[in-house]
Design a protein that fits this description.
Layout (H helix, E strand, L loop, with lengths): L1 H19 L12 E6 L2 E8 L12 E4 L8 H5 L3 H6 L3 E5 L19 H11 L6 E6 L3 H10 L7 E5 L18 E6 L7 H10 L7 E6 L6 H4 L1 H19 L1
Parallel strand pairs: 3-4, 3-5, 5-6, 7-8
Antiparallel strand pairs: 1-2, 2-4
């Protein structure tokens, strides 16, 4: 009996460990699943085309990264991709290297840093001026590193969602200002007003172009807890970018 119980507990632990690392999903691929090649690595991606592109024939992309316990599927599961595509943006969610159906990058792969790798992905999607990056939690090791290492790159927009690495995040005073909507769950234990303010300051955006929005009652993964409210905030931010570019 004890042996059987131990086996069950081990099995549960293994399943939990796989889930925590964003293991491969056993379900059929999501609609519009494809791959994007980045430095020889085939990155698994869900790519929803825009209904009526906001920039005419030139695609503008909202790139969704993910946290450690998730994969690209979370954005489809919570029905966030389709409203973004319906609003005229190409919605792309990717499995980061070693998560979901994207393999680990091989030892010695170039570029070496996560920030440089993300830059190459952004270039594959049209370049920083045509990409808005949505970056929750663990993916901050990619997005914040990118913003530090390439301060001259002017993303079309940035939507950090309690990203990892804020405390050590520093950009030069003359870094490109980036329109930003930082979203936090009010019940996220990592949230502090000082941390949120530091993130906004480092975006070097003109006054009013970088803001913080709290989702009341939501936890660290506020997009998972309150996807409708999260989507509403995101679409409002995207509309503001469209108006500035018109």
């Amino acid at each position: 009996m004890l042996r059987r119980l131990a086996a069950v507990l081990l099995a549960v632990g293994l399943v939990t460990a796989v889930a925590a690392c964003g293991g491969s999903d056993d379900r059929p691929p999501a609609k519009n699943t494809t791959t994007v090649e980045v430095d020889g690595l085939l990155v698994n991606a869900i790519m929803r085309p825009p209904a009526n592109p906001v920039a005419g024939d030139d695609l503008v992309t909202v790139l969704f990264l993910h946290g450690q316990s998730y994969t690209s599927r979370i954005w489809d599961d919570r029905k966030i991709l389709d409203p973004v595509a319906a609003a005229g943006w190409r919605a792309v969610s990717v499995d980061l290297p070693g998560y979901g159906d994207t393999p680990e990058r091989p030892d010695g792969a170039r570029p070496a840093s996560k920030g440089a790798w993300l830059r190459d992905l952004i270039d594959e999607l049209g370049g920083p001026g045509r990409v808005v990056v949505v970056s929750p939690s663990m993916s901050g090791t990619y997005s914040l590193t990118y913003l530090e290492e390439y301060p001259e790159d002017q993303l079309l927009g940035f939507v950090p969602v309690a990203p990892v690495g804020i405390d050590d995040f520093e950009r030069p005073e003359d870094a490109a200002g980036i329109s930003t909507m930082a979203i936090w769950g009010s019940e996220d234990p990592s949230y502090t007003e000082d941390r949120a303010d530091h993130l906004i300051t480092q975006m070097r955006a003109p006054e009013g172009s970088a803001q913080t929005q709290l989702i009341e009652g939501a936890s660290h993964a506020c997009y998972d807890d309150e996807p409708i409210e999260f989507t509403s905030i995101l679409l409002s931010f995207l509309r503001s970018l469209d108006q500035r570019g018109s």
